[in-house]
């Protein structure tokens, strides 16, 4: 393999990993943008989505399309329930209390699923059985390009939803100033519930696509991609929808090129250094807005 | 983890030293009476200790059952009445030393099969130096265990031995001259196998063309595997646990890597976590025994009927190790520690896991089984 096609191949690897990060980062950024909460349980909703899909296909023998829908709907409901039980009572509390609660929910979900289904990994069924895409000498397997396409489509749809629809407008209003929004007759509870439902539905999709690429399900599968996607969201500018996707792809590509050309042993150290440098020079992220504090 | 182990080990030594100090004089008389009692009678007792509760209980219980089954089988075959005493350590080194003292002082056991884990085995090995009672661990892999004293033996192979054997196998049997490695940089097991494999393979004359790493929790290995594909080695050594192994093998196949994938005993159980066994077809790894071995499968079936759970490698190792110890006691013809240790050192034992002898450290020289995946089944390589 020539040096250039090797480079292209590594770039494709980076985009593969990046599209997963992007998809997960969408959910993070969405919830943060509207509820101003870094929902650390987001990664674990991914795990729940994967388990639901696994059981829907394996135990209940549902067709794939129905299993995906069941998984999305149940995760959306879970998102709403988690918000109502764990986050709503703390809405007026300090940010740090909310953050810690989110970490608590994350551990709760992990432990619960470990208790129910043990820590033993289970194989995830093949649900995408399309031929690989050939680009010259490079082949891209189906789960990867499907993830890429899905994350770009979802980003576009989500962006349009937030910008063009009435609910989207309400979301932006709550994000900007929730008290003023309330005075204008916007139902804050409903808006936040919808946000969580959407974020968790995205997580379910991410979970299913993640497990299609890396077909193994265990109670901890969401934590590492969750953290990586959080970095992607911060890198792109948390709260910004195109920023999350851009951050995801950049992170994936940096990771792949670091592993390929610097050292596969040091890739995480380098990725985190990039994040720190980014935060020092541009704390709001690549596409983040610099919001001025109102005095 | 490491620090707490060292602390525990140190505590165990202190504890053992204080025990020796207090009971020094009274102990000699009791051991004497015991020795006379057992030479005319037949009160051989085997002790064991291990984690029967807690995180590692799967291993401890398996070892306990394996020893129990071996003693029952031995008694039935020889009409003897060998006793079995065991204590729970919860995997803790201090508890293990307490259990050891109880076994020696109260139960007056002839020899000990244990412990299950490396930490507790090392602590007890150190603590046993005053009494010099024969101890053989069926499953502790840490190198230090058998270095604690001449009375301490081991029934399973160590990680360096395993890696050296795989490297030799790759070079001699598979005819490989180039190797690529993909290992977990944050795991001692994986790292240890990588280093020993590399050293042995290069010593034999082979070349390790690329060594790639990843971190615990990683699921995407495409980048490393792309580099490995470009290196085009004869074998790809993957010294990790089955969860990572399954994902690596699948991604390697998707990238069209045709190097033979080889690995260590961490691959055992891999079939349970793959959706399509074709992804890992042709992988070769070493293990303590081969799955299609009739003697072993007879044992594991009987084990399941008796104890209600599937036998794992720990259970089979414990069974075999206990049988080996009983043979040494029989050859010695007495319950004297020194006599048993002498026979154990020079033993030539043939058990369910094949032939076994001990080297000068008390580590086993034994055959490993090469297992390959064929048509979705574990089968012995080459058969």
| Principal-axes shape call of chain A | globular
Tell me the structural class of chain B. Answer: alpha/beta
| Contiguous uncertain segments of 5+ residues of chain A | none
Averaging pLDDT over every residue of chain A, what do you get?
Answer: 88
Secondary-structure element order of chain A, as H and E? HHHHEEEHHHHEHHH
The outline of chain B comes out as elongated
Order of helices and strands of chain B: HEHEHEHEEHEHEHEHEEHHHEEEEE
Distance between the termini of chain B: 42 Å
CATH architecture annotation name of the largest domain in chain B: 3-Layer(aba) Sandwich
Overview of this structure, please?
The complex is a heterodimer of chains A (295) and B (383). Chain A is mainly alpha-helical and 295 residues long. Chain A has a single domain, classed as ABC transporter involved in vitamin B12 uptake, BtuC. Chain A is built from eleven helices and four strands; from the N terminus they run ααααβββααααβααα. Chain A has a two-stranded antiparallel ribbon. In chain A, strand 2 and strand 3 form a beta hairpin. The termini of chain A are far apart. About 9% of the residues of chain B have low confidence. In chain B, helix 1 runs parallel beside helix 3, helix 1 packs across helix 4 and helix 10 crosses helix 11. The relative contact order of chain B is 0.12. Chain B is α/β, with parallel strands linked by helices.
Short summary:
Chain A has eleven helices and four strands; from the N terminus they run ααααβββααααβααα. Chain A has helices at residues 3-35, 42-58, 64-87, 95-117, 142-164, 166-176, 178-183, 188-213, 223-236, 241-261, 267-281, and strands at 122-123, 133-135, 138-140, 216-217. The mean pLDDT of chain A is 88.
